[in-house]
Amino acid sequence: MDLGISGKRALVCASSKGLGLGCAEALAEAGVNLVMNARGAEALEASAQAIRDAYGVNVVTVAADVTTPEGQQKVLEAAEGVDILVTNAGGPPPGLWTDWDREDFIKALDANMLTPIALIKALVPGMIERGWGRVVNITSVSVKSPVPVLGLSNAARAGLTGYVAGTARQVAGKGVIMNNLQPGLHATDRAEALDGGAAKAQGISVEDAKKQRCATIPAGRYGTRQEFGATCAFMCSQHAGFMVGQNILLDGGATNTTM
After folding, report:
1. Exposed end of the chain (fewer CB within 10 Å): N or C?
2. Does residue 82 contact residue 123 with C-beta atoms inside 8 Å?
3. Does the pLDDT at position 46 exceed 90?
């Protein structure tokens, strides 16, 4: 399928690896030029060069922590005039509800709620002026089905989801389509860290912990960054113009829900 976005330009955050990289790769395959951001310069440039070589698109890299004001300024300077925004940031550490104090919540809100909002506020007005834009926020399955050990993520990402629900409906008539993409378990560093934590807590091997978690997924496996990226690219396409303020769950059927 021709996604109809060849020649567009996208900012993809946290895109040196994992789900962000999957989104950058899929957009590049569709002919989209990229601004890629991550904190680690070496991994970021390596991923960017691989995309340049594979798809022949223009890729600008910005090594910065986008959750800080300084990092946001650097990213926004490079991303001025983009047509597509994919927000993404690593999730806060797991724990129990008794473990966190105010500063822990502030950090989680900065990374997983306030940073995406800042990028939306900075870049969507330009999209409105040009009459076309796409925003995809990578959130989490925990928004729909809270994960007890991910209370910081549950709270911050739910806050972003509420903000997007109202904002998406205000900008849709101006050609800007905004939605959220909710990953379940995918084969990323985050999944490995969670597997490691489960293995330590239960006194079992990481491999056995992964098998236990895969058994809870009807698809019987973790998702891949490639299929996640393909879903994101469709949400950024010309064909997604009637999808407004939605939360697209990509979890292999793990969340047992009718709606």
Report:
1. C
2. yes
3. yes
Angle at 212 between CA 210 and CA 214, to 5 degrees: 70
Q: In this structure, what token pair is assigned to residue 219?
A: 């698809």
DSSP line for 131-176: T-EEEEEE--GGGTS--GGGHHHHHHHHHHHHHHHHHHHHHGGGTE
Could you tell me which residues are beta bridge partners of residue 37? 62
The pLDDT mean for the chain works out to: 95
Task: Kindly list the structural domains of the chain, giving each domain's residue range(s) and its CATH number in brackets, ordered by start.
Answer: 9-184+225-250 (3.40.50.720), 185-222 (no CATH)
Alpha helices in 56-150 (DSSP H): 69-79, 102-109, 115-130
108 contacts: CB under 8 Å, gap ≥ 6: 92, 152, 153, 155, 156
Q: In the structure encoding, which two tokens stand for residue 108, read together?
A: 């989680």
User: pLDDT-derived band of residue 60, with 50, 70 and 90 as boundaries?
Assistant: very high
